Amino acid sequence: MPHALDRIRVGSAPDSWGVWFPDDPQQVPWERFLDEVAEAGYDWIELGPYGYLPTDPARLTEEVARRGLKVSAGTVFTGLHRGPAVWDETWAHVGQVAALTQAMGARHLVVIPSFWRDDKTAEILEPPELTAEQWAHLTKGMERLGHEVRERYGLDIVVHPHADTHIDTEEHVERFLDSTDSELVNLCLDTGHYAYCGGDSVKLIETYGERIGYLHLKQVDPDILADVVAGGVPFGPAVRRGVMCEPPSGVPELGPVLEAAQRLGVELFAIVEQDMYPCEPDKPLPIAVRTRRFLRSCGA
User: Fold this and answer.
1) Residues 6 or more apart from 14 whose CB is under 8 A from it?
2) 19-78 pLDDT, tens digit each
């Protein structure tokens, strides 16, 4: 029998139901997502793209409560490497999401950096490497965001390294962590994105344990990933090829990741996020049921 991972709180997210946008005809209705995530055996959910779930706190509270669910985090997208000129626009978006996240009793805000390559069209929007000045804007901007979000909403920000953004590879993630204040900024380690970009999640947890504030659980198919890397395929088309796969068929092994996280001695959310946009509406639930069963077999 596996050891009980009693510090790990497992949940899932709209992403595992093929939801990437607030409104999209290819996505399942939000009511179906809530029904099915509860049916699959998860207690915790994320808000997903702002506007997918109801944004009225009273209504959303009622909808999640009657299904026995609780909210672990909201998600925001930022382009803070562009400097102070984008602060007001960024804060308008962050404030909306943070207010709803706070109202739902959650404590975390997942912050995703902006893409340098369009995940739908594959258009190159910016160079994949930041200049020294842009790195300074990014790190100082994230520290400011962490401070403001905590002061105004009582939330902790966790920055999500993500494929096709400027915080992706081991080198970039370590540079970001070494350049930011742990009191203000910590990490949402997404095991799939980190593996997609060549990183080792267990090593990161063991090296930067005090900076791991949140987990997203997913795996990549190594064979599809090899083709994606060889062909320079952008993230969106890579997802459509099935690069993010159902556990436990891909990498990294999630058991050792969860055990390393348990050893940190702090309570951590571990939210399943199997990127599947777009997908057939009947596909997510059976996968979610099997994934929950697999995670229980790991002790979570």
Assistant:
1) 30, 33, 45, 46, 47, 48, 49, 52, 53
2) 999 999 999 999 999 999 999 999 999 999 999 999 999 999 999 999 999 999 999 999
Per-residue tokens: 300: 């979570």
Q: What is the pLDDT of residues 221-236, one digit of tens each?
A: 999 999 999 999 999 9
Determine, yes or no, domain membership for 2: no
Ramachandran region, residue 181 (left: φ > 0; alpha: ψ -120 to 50; beta: rest): beta
Task: Dig out the tokens for 143 from the structure.
Answer: 């520290």
Q: In terms of C-beta density within 10 A (0-12 exposed, 13-18 middle, 19 or more buried), how is residue 108 classed?
A: buried
The answer to whether residue 3 sits within a structural domain is: no
H-helix or E-strand spanning residue 220: strand 219-220
pLDDT at 2 over 80: no
Q: Give residue-wise pLDDT tens across range 177-203.
A: 999 999 999 999 999 999 999 999 999
Rg (CA), the chain: 18
Closest CA to 14 of 244, 268, 31: 31
- Tally the domains of the chain: 1
Query: Scanning the structure block, which residue is given the tokens 């984008």?
Result: 86
Measured CA distances, 107 to 70, 95, 100, 149, 213 (Å) = 12, 14, 11, 10, 11
Residue pair 23/29 in contact by the 8 Å Cβ criterion = no
Structure tokens at 98: 């943070």
CATH of the domain at 69: 3.20.20.150
Instruction: Give the residue numbers spanning the domain of 67.
Output: 8-297
Contacts of 17 (CB under 8 A, 6+ apart): 27, 28, 32, 33, 36, 37, 276, 279, 284, 288
Kindly write down the DSSP assignment for every residue of 66-129, as one continuous string.
TTT-EEEEEEEEE-GGG-GGGHHHHHHHHHHHHHHHHHTT--EEEEEEPBSB-TTT--B-S-SS
Residue 1 confidence (pLDDT):
46
Write the DSSP string, 33-51: HHHHHHHTT--EEE--STT
